[in-house]
Amino acid sequence: DADMTSVLSDGYSQFGSEMSLNHDKHKDCRNCCPRRCLLISCAIVLILGAMAVVLACAIIFGIPPKQPITRLCKTTSGTNGFLCDDRRTCLTSTHLCNGKVDCSNGEDESNLYCGDLPHSLPKYLVFMCGNQRSWTYIDRKCDGKNHCGDCSDESELQCPSCSGWKCVTVFFSDCDCIPKSRCKDNIQDCSDMSDEKNCTM
């Protein structure tokens, strides 16, 4: 009996020690939980605070507008062009607002660019004529045709020297330079007939 009592006593003693250890572990967890919870709570409060500040700024100052897409590009002829949304297609200025969709998303015919010509077009696609009321597309400048009516788009200030035949022209659509291909073609282009008499091919 004494041995049995001793065994039981040892068992209870061991069980009691285990209970005590488990109790200490729970006590430690209770101590560490508030620390962890406090850190998580602080992080959540900081995130919510930052979101509140951003929202307040958006309400007070307004949401910043979307940055405009840069449309400037160089065409194969070296003139300023219009870059489509695909960031690959570069249109000459005369392809804008001509009633034909050339960009895959149709931005070349959109109201954003065609709503108030020429003011709605990017400035680098427009040439303002000498009278500052008329205008033409930039790639029509120095093409040998009088698009402005006063030849300011074909003036020596804007264009390289005449590569054709220089004279006072007969037709309103010409300025003071006709292409050599029109020399001696049996059509009078110069008022003094020099394009048919003196012009060399």
From TrEMBL:
Compartment(s) of residence: Endomembrane system; Membrane
Record keywords, A-Z: Disulfide bond, Membrane, Repeat, Transmembrane, Transmembrane helix
InterPro entries in alphabetical order: LDL_receptor-like_sf, LDLR, LDLR_class-A_CS, LDLRAD1_C, LDrepeatLR_classA_rpt
Membrane topology value: Single-pass membrane protein
SMART domains associated with the record: LDLa
Pfam families: Ldl_recept_a, LDLRAD1_C
Transmembrane region(s): 37-63
Gene Ontology CC: one annotated term: plasma membrane
Statement: the UniProt record of this protein carries the keyword Oxidoreductase: no
Residue ranges constituting the LDLRAD1-like C-terminal domain according to the UniProt record: 159-196
Main location class: membrane
GO biological process, one term: vesicle-mediated transport
SUPFAM superfamilies hit by this protein: LDL receptor-like module
Listed name of the protein: LDLRAD1-like C-terminal domain-containing protein
